[in-house]
Every structure is written in C-alpha cells, then in structure tokens.
Amino acid sequence: MSKGLRRREFLTAAAAIAAQASASVPALAAAKTTASRGGARLFPGCCAYSYLKHFNTGVMTMESFIQKAVELDAHSVDITTYWLKSAEPEYLNTLRHLAFKNGVAFSGIAIRTEMCQGGGAIRAEEVRRIHQWVDATQALGASHIRVFGGNLPEGVSEKQGIEWVAETMKPACEYAAKFGITLGIENHGGITARAPAVLEILHRVDSPYAGVNLDIANFEANTDEEMYSDIRACVPHATHAHIRDVFGATKRPIDMDRAWRLFADGGYKGYMSAEYEAEEDPSTGVPKLMEKIKTLCRKYSSA
Asked: What is the dihedral of CA 45, 49, 51, 55, to 10 degrees?
C-alpha cells in the first residue's frame, strides 16, 4: 500500500470522526440546558432542619448530620443552630474541621430572630444577639446567616413594621460586613410573607451584605402564579435558597423545573438547600428531595 493511500485513508477517517463529534454538539447542548444564561451556578445542599424529627429525638447530632450530607452527595450543609451543642469557638472548630475533612462546605447558619419589634431596647438586644452569631459564623468558617423578620404586632402598620426590621438589620449588617458575612432575611410569614415587603426591607437596609434567604415554598400568596412571581422578584437578591417541593400556603406541588429556570435566568450563584418538612420519615424523604435538587442543578447550572 502506498504512503499516499494510507494518508488518504487517515484523512477520510479523521473527517468522519470530526463530523460525528460535530453532530453530537447540539445534543450535548440540549442535555445541559445552558442556563449559563446569566452564568448561574447552582449547588445542591441540605439544611439540618430537614432532619428535625431525628434531631429532636436525639437520633442525629450535628456531627452525624455532616456525615449524612456526604451520603446524600450534598455540596454543602446549612447549620440550623437550634441543635448545636455549643456556640463556643472550640466546639465550632471541631465541626469546621469535620466538614473540611469530608469535603462539605457550610452554606451558612440559620438562627431565630424577631426584628419586627417596637421597643428600641428590644431591637438593640436583637442586634446584640445577631452580633454573637456573626462571631460564631466566623469561627465556623461560614459566610451567611439566615435571619427572620418576625411577626407584625397587632394594630401596627406594615410600613412601621418594615421600618423596625430595617432599623434592626442595618446595624447587624454593618457588623457582619467586617467579617465578610451576609445576612439573608427569609420570606417566612409575618412581615416577610410577600416579596414587596422583603424587597422594601432590603432597600432600606441598603447593604451589599443584606439579601434574601429565599424559601421557594414560603410565600403566602393567593395563587401559585403569585408564588412564582414573588420568587422571580426575589431571585436577584437571593443569597441562599431553601427548597421544598410543595407550597406551604396552597399545599400544591411546586413545579421545581420552573423554579430552577427562575434562578437560572436570574443568574443566581449559590446553594439550593433541601429543607424537608413532609410527613414521610426524613430517612427516606430527604434522599428523594435531594435527588430532585441534584438533577436540576446539573441541568441548569454552568458549574
């Protein structure tokens, strides 16, 4: 066989391989819905609150929860502080080291706050408590704290409630900013039941270290369409996301693919943390929710 013939055969085979690879590109692009639209980076995580029943009965500890996150193939854990053994640096250091050794990030911590209160001294105490948790978050090596706005007292206007929350959150954010820590106010009923109030609070706080801990199930809207509208409005300000697959108000299933598209189109970069609250035991319920989250993160994320 001549060298010329061998060369022609090689070039013919190479052209066929190139054509086949080129034909597969559209299929690959379709398989990964390029919600690099906006460069979204969506990572699956899990909230400790998902195992509420197990924590309350003592079956689970924060240490075993971190190990469980490894089994779930979660990229991160959101530490609900109700079940921490201590907020002392020595204890937090052990959790930080355990998470590091297992390749698990802390997407943040979640604390209880009641910022919608009239008394200036009471609000000042809330700020002091948040400062303490900022210190704990710093020791843990996390960068985000979930806070609550709280309930609107009877007879008080929404406008006044928003002012109280902003007056509390603003100095708390100023302190958190010293450590590069962000406060995410959750849409969790009360003063934060709907998107406009949440966004007005953030407008008044006016800090790059303030955002929304966006729970896609929590808005108290009259219709599902209003729910999706509120999610869409808050995505540009989202600093962390809590994920369930059923709306809290209507008890109807959430179109999670639609929700992910909203995050992708909004260019969200962060964790999509399972917060399981259904009746099924978390041992079987959480993995099912996590599988949905992981599938959608792969579909819509550029990461």
From this structure: 130
In the chain, helix, strand, coil percent, each to 5? Answer: 55, 15, 30
Identify which of 88, 141, 135, 81 has the alpha carbon closest to the alpha carbon of residue 112. Answer: 81
Q: What is the tens place of the pLDDT at every residue in 216-253?
A: 999 999 899 999 999 999 999 999 999 999 999 889 99
CA 99 to chain CA mean position, Å = 18
Each domain of the chain, given as residue ranges in start order, spans 44-300
At 250-282, the pLDDT tens digits run: 899 999 999 999 999 999 999 999 999 999 999
Q: Is 144 helix (H, G, I), strand (E, B) or coil?
A: strand
Please state, in angstroms and rounded to a whole number, the distance separating the CA atoms of residues 301 and 89: 35
Q: How far is CA 126 from CA 112, 119, 171, 274, in A?
A: 10, 11, 11, 27
Strands, E assignment, 10-168: 41-47, 76-80, 105-110, 144-148
Q: How far apart are CA 176 and CA 184, in angstroms?
A: 11
Q: Which tokens sit at 196?
A: 């406009």
CATH superfamily for 44-300 is: Divalent-metal-dependent TIM barrel enzymes (3.20.20.150)
Provide φ and ψ at 185, rounded to 5°: -80, 130
